[in-house]
Amino acid sequence: DLHEITDDVLERPSTTIVINLSESETGQLETIREKPWHNIILSEFGYSTTSVTPKEVLKELVQNFGDKLLGAHSLTLIEISPNTYNKGFLTQSSSLIELGGSERRASKLSDVCLPPHLIPTFYPSLSNIAELETTIPVTYDSGRTTPNVDILLSVMRLCSNTLTSITIKNGHISAASGGLRTGGCCRVSFPQLIRLNLVGLSKQSALDILSAIECPTLRHLTFNIFSAGSGNYSHSQQDTAPAIRITARFLHGLFPHLTYI
């Protein structure tokens, strides 16, 4: 209960504010608007009892408490259902890129965990983002589920200039493939990236990412990948990567300044 929290607790940098997206009212957050919001976790807890969707609650949060997001250190969204899915995120992302950052505001927010479809939603707060944990969108078509690296990278262009650390995992099924079109993705530059972690990806997804990014300052690369038949995907999803061995020589050819693999 926010009314029972003492002022000194809210002032501590270790304090985390947990916001339930299953509740339609963000009004109770007004009681702590004047206090610092250091760390924020967003998720759904329990069933919603109103017609207001978690996606709408997120939109209201960004509109009404954007100043608090700008002052936070970390933001984590724990996605447990498709209720927060933003169908128009690719169009929104393209529009923001064309605007060239004019929507951004000065921000202290540096450590973020968001699925790619919500990066455009929080874009005004991401001008100083350094660490990002995100997922590869997974599309569904004719019984096949396919990780889509192009979609991920096209959205990550929004914050590529400031990132120093990226962790990428497999995501949940986002949409039918017909609803997501990027027209292909050019190489994406991450001029300040030092650390890249690829967690639980297929070999094909890992190769797609490694071959599409430019990271002149990359020093630290970690990954664990699975091969066809490992059980992570159904037969229709199994790895179709070409016979390229991901060796130290191969990785140093892509990122010559690596000091840790």
List keywords for this structure.
23% helix; two-stranded parallel ribbon; alpha/beta; 261 residues; globular; nine-stranded mixed sheet
Estimate the strand proportion: 15-25%
Q: Low-confidence parts, pLDDT < 50 over ≥5 residues?
A: 176-183, 229-238
Return the structural class: alpha/beta
Helix proportion: 10-25%
| Bulk shape | globular
Number of helices: 6
One letter per element, helices H and strands E, the order comes to HEEHEHEEEHEEEHEEH
Largest sheet: 9 strands, mixed
Distance between the termini: 45 Å
Number of strands: 11
Mean pLDDT: 83
Radius of gyration: 19 Å
Describe this structure as you would to a colleague.
- This protein has helices spanning 7-11, 54-71, 89-99, 149-156, 203-212, 248-254, and strands spanning 16-20, 39-43, 74-77, 111-113, 131-141, 144-147, 165-176, 188-189, 195-202, 213-214, 220-226.
- The strands form two sheets. Strands 1, 2, 3, 4, 5, 6, 7, 9 and 11 form a nine-stranded mixed β-sheet that branches.
- By secondary structure, it is α/β, with parallel strands linked by helices.
- 23% of the residues lie in helices and 24% in strands.
- Mean pLDDT is 83; it is low at 176-183 and 229-238.
Task: Summarize the structure in short.
With 261 residues, the chain is of the alpha/beta class.
List the SSEs and their pairings.
Layout: H1 7-11, E1 16-20, E2 39-43, H2 54-71, E3 74-77, H3 89-99, E4 111-113, E5 131-141, E6 144-147, H4 149-156, E7 165-176, E8 188-189, E9 195-202, H5 203-212, E10 213-214, E11 220-226, H6 248-254
Parallel strand pairs: 1-2, 2-3, 3-4, 4-5, 5-7, 7-9, 8-10, 9-11
Antiparallel strand pairs: 5-6
